[in-house]
Amino acid sequence: MKRKALPYVNFGRVLCAALLCSVLFTACTEDPEVIASLGEEAAPQQIIQLAPRPDKWVTIHASKEEELEDLSKKRRATQAGGPDRGRFNISLKFIVPVTEEQERVFNDAAARWECIIIKDVPSITGTIPSAFVGFPPAADGTVDDFIIEVALAPIDGPGGILGQAGPVYIRNSDNLPLSGVMFFDVDDLAFLDELGLFEEVIIHEMGHVLGVGTLWDYGDRDLLRGEETNPYYAGKLGNIFWKLEGGRKLLPVEDTGGPGTALGHWRESVLGNELMTGFLNLGENPLSHITAASMRDLGYGAIPFGERYDLERGTPGVDPNDENTTPPDIEDPAAGIDLAAREITLRPIGSVEVK
To answer: Is the pLDDT of residue 72 over 80?
Structure first.
């Protein structure tokens, strides 16, 4: 299903053009003699890879925007134009060039989540390290309100890892992410396009970056329970809309698969084609009111702006008083792609402490 394009701000085109030379080649020059001397021996393409996970939790010090002495001279790291008007902004930083169509898909995904997360959070000014090896900081200035580094580059060839995504640095003030990363294998993009699932994959992974399945148990949150027996989601708003959609008892969380699959998605065998299960079906994969409402449980100023989702009335969920009773599987699961088996969901590596 091709989603109707939503309005967006073209954050990445200027940045991508500026980075084209420095990213693709180890040396750049306009000198004709130097260019001629290179001949066919152009410098090798830069390898894009995520920075190693640090052994210890990283703490970064920053300032709130309103505490700066001269707001007129602040550097806007996120390039968000104009005033906030009280809205939440997701900014994208493409570290390698992308096509206009790819950029559109990412911006549409950000716009979709911005229709759910509507309340502004304080802008933060500081230097946020890049999630990638050898690249400038993800932000060096004012972040308003959340910045995601994006890379479409080789990872392991066709048929392997589709992508890696998750929050990187968390705000100490509210335990919400300040920066995140989305890294997709360029060798798998044609495959996703053939299935008509490229846009759904981007929205799904951006959900993980914002905290779905990756921040349920971070800090003082206690949204994930029954991990050892029959996992379920304990958030109030998510469960209210689970029941409004037709579910009974409590909202089931995935209990099968390896790390990043289990305990990080809604349960595919129960919720079927909902977007934030670990399996994307061919056809429609709605971002439901359930997922939208769960963003408020995470602490965002969010509204349950979801898409039509057909859950059979009376679908059983988890009974926390009988955790050994597993909800039955849905009948005849549709064809699609086991996304969770081919994604790596990343957890945060550090936090940002505001002075």
So the answer is: no
pLDDT in tens, 38-51: 333 433 467 899 99
At 117-137, the pLDDT tens digits run 999 999 999 999 999 999 999
CA distances from 240 to 44, 100, 212, 327, 348 (A): 54, 39, 17, 18, 28
CA distances from 56 to 6, 52, 61, 173, 200 (A): 40, 12, 16, 20, 34
* Residue for token pair 């500026």: 18
* Residue that the structure tokens 């991990």 belong to: 227
**H helices of the chain, where?**
13-24, 32-38, 100-114, 189-195, 198-210, 236-244, 268-271, 289-298
Pairing of strands 124-128, 280-281: unpaired
* pLDDT: which is higher, 329 or 8: 329
Strand extents, DSSP E, 65-162: 90-94, 124-128, 139-143, 146-153
User: Phi and psi dihedrals of 183, rounded to 5?
Assistant: -130, 115
CA–CA distance, 11 with 34 (Å, rounded to integer): 33
> What's the confidence (pLDDT) of residue 332?
52
Q: Tell which residue, 167, 76, 85, has the closest CA to residue 124.
A: 76
Angle between helices 236-244 and 289-298 (to 10 degrees): 170
Name the residue with higher pLDDT: 332 or 224.
224
Q: Which fold has domain 13-51+61-210?
A: Elastase; domain 1 (3.10.170)
Q: Judge: domain 220-350, CATH 2.60.40.
A: no
Q: What separation in angstroms does the CA of 76 have from each of 11, 82, 125, 147, 309?
A: 12, 11, 8, 11, 39
Average pLDDT, the chain: 82
pLDDT of 270 higher than 70: yes
Confidence of residue 256 (pLDDT cuts 50, 70, 90): confident
- Cα–Cα distance, 269 to 141 (Å, whole number): 45
Domain boundaries, the chain: 13-51+61-210, 220-350
Distance CA 250, CA 292 (A): 17
pLDDT at 16 over 70: no
